[in-house]
Amino acid sequence: LRDLSFTGLSLVAVQRIPKGTAFRVSAPNFETIAVSVACRPAGAAFTTHAQLLTLQMVRSGRGVFVSARA
Question: How far, in Å, CA of 43 to CA of 8, rounded?
């Protein structure tokens, strides 16, 4: 995962995720369903940019910081 916002994400994957493909990301602090909007080669991997369709933040015993600045 390179970047996450409330509307999209950027990640590096070992497989190409074609534009328009829906996929799931499950991480320790969140789960999301996203759809690929762009996928570009990055060395032996691929950089994918995607629009979030759902986002569920997982609560932990610690707080979560959300920046109010763009």
Answer: 23
